[in-house]
Amino acid sequence: MFRILLSVGALTLTALQPTLALTPLPQNSSLVKNERFGFSFRAPKSWASVALKTDEGWLASKHLSNKEYFGTDKTTGYTYSHVPEMLCIAFIHANQERKKVVEEESEDGVTTKTTTISNPYKDYEDFLDRTYAGGGWYVDSKDKGKHGKIEVTRYSVKVEKLARSGPKRIITWIYHAPDIDFVLQTEVLEAEYKKLRSTIEKSLKSFKFIERSGELLPTGASTPGGIRITRRELTEGTPKERRSKRVESQKIKHEKAIRALPKDWDHQYRGKVLVLDHDQDKWAKKLGDHADLLIEWLSKEFSYFGENEYMRAPILRVCNDSDEEGAFTRGTRTGTTGSYSYVAPGSEIVTHKPDTGWIGGEVDWVNGKLLEQWLLDRNEDAARAMPEWLRIGIVTHVRGARRDGRKLEFRVNEYAREGARLAASQGRATAPRTIMSQTREEFSSGAGGGGTFSKSAEAAQLVRFLLSKEGARCKQAKTLLETYVTTLTQVVDEINEKDKGVASIGNAPKTEEEEDALGKERAERWRQKEQDMVREVFERTFADWTEKDWSSFTKAYFKFIS
Amino acid sequence: MLGPFNYQVSLPAVCLVLLASPLQADILLLKDGRVIDGPMMERGEETCTIHFKNGDVLVPNDWVEDLFLAADLEGLAKNRRRSLEKQGEERLEQIEEALAHAEWGNAYEEETSNFRWKYTLPKRVAEMFQDRLESYYKIFAKEWRVKRDKRKKKMMINFFANRKEFMRTSGAGGGALAYFMFLGDYDLCCFYDRLDMTSTEMVLYHEASHYLQKLLNEDFKMPHWPGEGIAEYYGGALWDPKKKVLNVGLVQEGRLTEVQNDIASGELLTVEQIVLKDAYTDYTWGWALIHFFMNDKTLKKGFLKYANGLANDKKVNRQRGSFNLQMVTPEESLRYLRECLKLTEDSDMEELTQRFHTYIEEDLVIEGAAGLEKAGMGAVQAGKRIRARRLFSEANAEGGLSAVGCYQYAKLVRSSDKNLARDLYRQATELAPLTGTYWYEFGRLHTDEEEGKRFKALGKELDPEVGVYDIDFEDSDDSE
Description:
- The complex is a heterodimer of chains A (562) and B (480).
- Chain A has 562 residues and is an alpha+beta fold.
- In chain A, 41% of the residues lie in helices and 23% in strands.
- In chain A, helix 7 links the parallel strand 18 and strand 19.
- In chain B, 51% of the residues lie in helices and 13% in strands.
- Chain B has a five-stranded mixed beta sheet. A three-stranded antiparallel beta sheet of chain B has the order 2-1-6, with no helix packed on it. Chain B has a three-stranded antiparallel beta sheet with strand order 3-4-5.
- In chain B, helix 10 (297-312) crosses helix 11, helix 14 crosses helix 15 and helix 17 (436-445) packs antiparallel against helix 18 (449-462).
């Protein structure tokens, strides 16, 4: 059997391209100087330097204005804000060729063929096509000229249609060296362009080629250090082998993150957690200590979940504020907008010091990401198979965690508490027995209405009850979570084992009728599989429970939520 | 840079050089706006031959707007030569003008009776769409009794020359084919798909229908159902160039196939479910239901009253929603539909659903090669490969597939029937001889290795982007 893993695009590319390290600059200077690549320019005064992604292969520096500008959308009437941003990008000609690397690996008769294709940016417009997420754009003007002795191409790009944060102007000069094109790009609101034009031009005109020194320019399509670890290796093999690979992967990620830090960023270990911060030492310490304690709590409280599995120590990147965090991701392929971002285990969790302080939603979000990484590293299959009530319950509970001295406190989610209390007082709360036997579809039935919110609130309170002192005092609830989760893990393992044999069996349909029947059966199978899993876990977990047990448990739970 | 062969929008510099010395090289102008220069060319009775480095490509004379051959000047009398050169210069000036408008920053801007237009596609292609959309406007306006507010700006149609430009400049994400911005002065963005004119036209009509629905009451936002269903119904329109009329309400074969696939999988939606469910099925089942209403004499009047009344009837309970626009809930929409169609009892609703299902089964029929091909495409999307193969095969027998259809069909059969796949790729190269992908794929399956290499090289010569991910997936294809 051949399994072909095809990864195309800049996501792959970023891992293949070397990082452009900046030489340290004197404090309080706007001078950006890179001797390895041989350029310097002056960023606008008082614009802050922004960190670059660890794997970033194209951006040489980023700078963010210290001033925020506002505007009103004429169509919607909504107000938007925008912080001007300058990017310096280096296109090394030798790295702009497409490359294909095919690797084959055989193990136990199974051949895995991995094909990696690098697909570098062809030119500046291709870079914008693939990274710009601020709205629809077009080249308003483009001309060639000279800046001193340097050949330059000047772009004026307008962002008009579906523009996020308002219509914008991007002013870009490309400085052509024999082997590198350097791009200096500044994005401002269209309405502010006239005002900022001279500031931008000053920077553009300050660009110089300088003598190169230090390491040679990076070429070729190899990862720094020549090490490549695939996801397959991290999730397969014995726990010992996995641990060894994960430790190795963690080491590489941490070293790379530290190596790529800009001059005004610091790094520190708080327990096992690597924290990178930009002038937020106090907050970084606090958040790092908290993250470390949360991981410790998860490992202790849910020790039975993915026992012996190694969780890669997280990396927390703490930006100065939300604008800096936004700028950190822009100009890269993964810098698109969206309300949900998946942070793979071992990857950086990017956050900032929030205005809302320690109690606000930003720390909730970080907690959620730490939990996600922990669950996926400990037992990905079981984590993904969790029924809705359990998933919502654990997430809501953990999001509320805050370190207080040497202990973790778990803030009650007021929406959940009130929602569940209200449902109970109005006699429409769902019995825990019902919630715990429901599939996702059953749990979410009536989506969009008040019912779903109420049920999520009840799920959150149910898990909170199982983890509470009140729960510990209830005979039936005392070890219920552990029993349920352990049973879930067992059932998921059994299903996976069973599926291994089934996967290759099955005849391809020969007629349209068979094809229709197969489609129908597949849809039904997914539904049935989940239903079987949830019912099986339920049956096994509560096999010994009598009606009296249910009655006592339900009473204690309703008392708790009321 | 695309090499010696250029699309009109790609290489202004080359053509400007030509302007300085007209007719020193062969130049081919196609009716769809493309310009080819560089290779040697020959005029034939039915086709024009372009001699590319890796092989000859035959372009049907029907496609040709103009062909200038440097050889034509040889041996001509001075005055005749001068006259021909002058013609060439005029043509090149037209090309220069088109090239000047090929970038969005300098796009053509025009007005027709009811729309403003901004576009980068060739002028003569745009004019064709302008005429058709004006006809479409008149048909819709008459049937729905709407007219635009002449005190307001006409809606802007942003017509991009290709998908890439559309994705870049319109700000649309994902797999969007077009969009209508329902706020402010209104804005419609779409693109010209050179290989699929029919789809380009239908997508334009679909989005324009949203604008026309808006004219029912500009303070109202039509719910997803019936909004998308109506847009699909009016999107099923095609211009008959012979009769010079627009045929509206045609069967959308792709949508019908999706409905049929759902039925085959046991998903049979009722009228009530369609109205209440705010989902993708509004494009498929929603379209089918509106097709049923609009083609049933006993229901059409009631349905038009309903759709119009949702926006305007004082008896409808509307609430303010996003962007401060009036909206109705699905429950209110259903109540009002029952009122307009006089469906007082639940049994009336059940009976209506029965009639609707019968209509799908008996009246909505996939016909003609184009219809079968679209149905085949729909089946591919739904993962019904056996059905897709049958539909493509029937389409081919009935009058032939389009180049895109051949390509899709070939992809389906290439692991099980290489001979058929090869024939289909060859057929695609004949139908769209300037599309590099088809030559490249034909080359990959060619029985003669050297010839195969040559065709692959020709594909790349026509389009350097072809074959960059040259991975042979044959071994992993488990489709059969």
